Amino acid sequence: MIRSIRWRLVLAGALAIALALALSGFGLAILFERHVERVTIADLQARALALTAMVQPGGASGPRLRESPEDPLYDQPFSGHYWQVELGDEIRRSRSLWDHVLVTGQPVPSPGEVKVRSLPGPQGEALLAVEQSLMVGQSANPVPLRIIVASHRYELELARRGFLGDLLPYLGLLGAVLLLASWLQITVGLRPLAQVGARVAELTSGSRPRIGRDLPTEVIPLATEIDKLLDAREQELARARHRAANMAHGFKTPLQALLGDAARLRARDEDEIAGSIETIATQMHRHVDRELVRARIQSDRNTSGAEPERIAAKLVEVLRRTPMGAALDWQVPKPSGLRARIDPDDLTEALGALLENAMRHAHEMIQVSIKAEGGHIHIGIRDDGPGVPEAELTRLTQRGLSLDPSGQGQGIGLAMVADITDAAQGELRLSNARPGFLAELVFDALPAQPGA
């Protein structure tokens, strides 16, 4: 999971969403608290204005305060709602204050000015207060009026907690929706990488020669570099095959000269020396032939595929014309459009070697079977000959090992077939058929061509 780009993006998105929602919740809580505080201040100002009705204009004695209006909110001691009115030297307080005096510790506001204060309450609690100052009277010496209305801040805290309690479920739901949207966005965003992976799989199966450039802009550089790498690999393989073929062809002329010298020595009755030279030259000739086959093998995966039934039919048609093949009963299936992932020339080389091997050992019959099973093409060549000792079966699968010193047996042929099969990433299976011997080639299957 740590190596997954998808999970890394999901984790980063989840952390970003959680941080954003936390900051949003914190910011909304602050905004709500300020809004509630503004509403509370407006209510306190309205109550302060209502308290001015306590002022009773007087005659020569000047204005004085009436009895305070009855209000259950301010009659209960320590209710959290308080007021205090000062007219000159006269002072009135709400019953809820009991014997506590609200002291601001700040200068009295200018007449007509409103100040918002934070004051200690009668029980030491924090109060939000509004202080207002007015001048009463028309004489040359008006009387100052000071009104303080306060409310417990605990109510603001309760409102904030209630708001957060209602907000958190919605934030959780919003976080889940955003996380789902992030997952969908990441899935859609990573889809081009899956498309590249699918095209690489098509390269592996041989159904596509190159990745191509018909992809989203962001992954085109990756696809282009992969295609360049494939081009460079193909060119290097072609150069390697050419070098191997040139080297093998270069050895053939000296080997023919050695065989000619061996023939002249044998004519002079130098049979021992001639036999030694012929043995060495024959072994070298076998290696040269094998390298020539390897040089012809198309080891790249981007092949058009081969139809094994048609190739087998053509090979059998040729072998039937030979003296050994004419005496045998060849059983070959009819073409059905099956296609194997291997170059047609390589499959012709492999089937030719197996059919010739079967022809040398068969008594009366050779059977060719071709079937599709589990996404693979199975090509079987069975003869009714003596078979191979069980102890030698495992040795036959070793490439380059010949059990026939003359070089005419299965050794070099099976080695070539093994090389071709490995290059196509197929499988060569050898077993006794009782009676006879069975050689089976297994390759990946390709879709049948339209109209086949």
From TrEMBL:
Cellular location(s): Membrane
Residue ranges constituting the Histidine kinase domain according to the UniProt record: 246-447
SMART domains in UniProt: HATPase_c (SM00387)
Gene3D superfamilies, sorted: 1.10.287.130, Histidine kinase-like ATPase, C-terminal domain (3.30.565.10)
Catalytic activity from the UniProt record: ATP + protein L-histidine = ADP + protein N-phospho-L-histidine
Matching PROSITE patterns: HIS_KIN
Annotated transmembrane regions: 167-190
GO CC term (a single one): plasma membrane
Domain of life: Bacteria
Alphabetic keyword roster: Kinase, Membrane, Phosphoprotein, Transferase, Transmembrane, Transmembrane helix
The protein's Enzyme Commission number: 2.7.13.3
GO MF terms held by the record: phosphorelay sensor kinase activity
PANTHER family for the chain: SENSOR HISTIDINE KINASE TRCS (PTHR45436:SF5), SENSOR HISTIDINE KINASE YKOH (PTHR45436)
Protein name: histidine kinase
Organism per entry: Paracoccus kondratievae
